[in-house]
């Protein structure tokens, strides 16, 4: 059995690229949550 | 009378405070850019009615070359190996009168790839990249075969599917040009390559996606400019030769004509970038001067909404001018802080806190988001991402974000140094902090000058870590203002490439 992975078709590439763009929104929310956590910790422990 | 004087004094204090807070403007534009990025999935130009995966235009890759044998030796083969039908792809190298072994190399490669590789040599070269490209455009457009042209640089290596990913957008008749994500890809990256790698992730993977959302692109990446034939014809079959930023002029003219410029962040290409401050300064001074020239040429376009294009929208103008004027904002903010400190130290401390709290939070958000957007860059260059503003600026952010522990740290440090935590010590430290907003650019310039002497190469990296890569970029932009005001000669100062880019 060949272990060589077949090159993705243009359609599979497009689905992959759409997935990359979809995940950006979650990354934004994660970054925002991180900043809010920093603000909370600052207010709670460092002021 | 006393009342009037008090009112005037109050107005003066408020005016100074507002001038200081000008420093927040670029941060606000940057954060807004990241928020736009979050919405990219709805404006990524991947809808079924926008792209066509089967329609592959007959494409010519146009490469200007002057003494590029070291990189062409590999890059031509890689262009020929692109995942693109051979009968639809030609590569045209414009040898701009090279004096190294480029002519011999090209002759051998033309024999290796008959009919697919064109050698468009200019005997009398040396006029700059734009003239070299125009020679190539004239030759290519003389043949009806060409349906699209991809302008690139000799050292740029496209990932096998990158070109196919780019051309899928040109099926949309509204699209005039497409650009890709150029990544720094030195085989053995040093600290400078790593800073650039992170900077490119922010400027392209983040910045250009945000510009997709806004519907207005600031600049096609010079090494990845896919132009439709129709668009080149509309531009008069030539690109601009009057500025140092011909790619930016092409981007503006395409959009002013009512056509879209699309950034495809999933089409990747790899390029070799400067590995020392001197090389970076030379390259970026050219870019910054080009941006100043573009701003002068198109200043009427900004902040004037139009039905034809989106370059006049407020966000685009804010993004463009806050980037270009960032060094000026920093100087104004810093001077105003010192003036305010002289007349009302408490108010100065309060406004300084506002400025740096917003800077610190913006830094945390944008750095975290940028690293998440490109996890490959994050794995390799997270240290440079954190060190981007420089150690001193990081300490200032820590000072305002977590003041109690920082005060203890500073008190202990000054006491152990024998200086003491006295009012005058605190006063001098405050003055230094207020001045650092603009002083950091002078410090970055000093590091550049030290690098040029070549005397202590081992010290340059640590010094830049203290001063910051961001301030270095601002110092270069400031230097571009000076060069443009002086009317310094605008010659094309080529970045030396050595062929050290890793394979795609």
Overall pLDDT metric of chain A: 88
- The number of helical runs of chain B is 19
How do the strands line up in the largest sheet of chain B?
3-2-1-4-7-6-8-5
Uncertain residue segments of chain A: none
* Helix/strand class of chain B: alpha/beta
Number of strands of chain B: 8
Overall shape of chain B: it is globular
Proportion of strand residues of chain A: under 5%
Strands of chain A, count: 0
Largest beta-sheet characterization of chain B: 8 strands, mixed
Give the biggest sheet of chain A. none
- Succession of helices and strands of chain B: HHEHEHEHEEHEHEHHEHHHHHHHHHH
The separation of the N and C termini of chain B measures 75 Å
C-alpha Rg of chain B, in Å? 25 Å
Structural class based on helices, strands and sheet pairing of chain A: mainly alpha
What low-confidence regions of chain B span 5 or more consecutive residues with pLDDT below 50? none
**What proportion of the residues of chain B is helical, as a percent range?**
55-70%
Secondary structure layout:
The complex is a heterodimer of chains A (47) and B (504).
Chain A: H1 10-46
Chain B: H1 2-20, H2 24-38, E1 59-65, H3 69-80, E2 89-95, H4 102-112, E3 117-119, H5 129-141, E4 148-151, E5 157-158, H6 162-167, E6 175-184, H7 191-214, E7 225-228, H8 229-234, H9 246-256, E8 260-271, H10 277-297, H11 314-324, H12 326-343, H13 345-373, H14 375-387, H15 391-401, H16 403-416, H17 423-453, H18 457-467, H19 469-486
Parallel strand pairs in B: 1-2, 1-4, 2-3, 6-8
Antiparallel strand pairs in B: 4-7, 5-8, 6-7
Description of the structure:
With about 45 residues, chain A is mainly α. Helices cover about 80% and strands about 0% of the residues of chain A. Chain A contains one helix and no strands. The radius of gyration of chain A is 20 Å and the shape is rod-shaped. Chain A starts with 9 loop residues before the first helix and ends with a helix. By secondary structure, chain B is of the alpha/beta class. Chain B contains 19 helices and eight strands. Chain B has helices at about 1-20, 25-40, 70-80, 100-110, 130-140, 160-165, 190-215, 230-235, 245-255, 275-295, 315-325, 325-345, 345-375, 375-385, 390-400, 405-415, 425-455, 455-465, 470-485; strands at about 60-65, 90-95, 115-120, 150, 155-160, 175-185, 225-230, 260-270. In chain B, strands 3-2-1-4-7-6-8-5 form an eight-stranded mixed sheet, with helices on both faces. In chain B, helix 2 packs across helix 7. Chain B is globular, with a radius of gyration of 25 Å. The model of chain B has no long low-confidence stretch (mean pLDDT about 90).
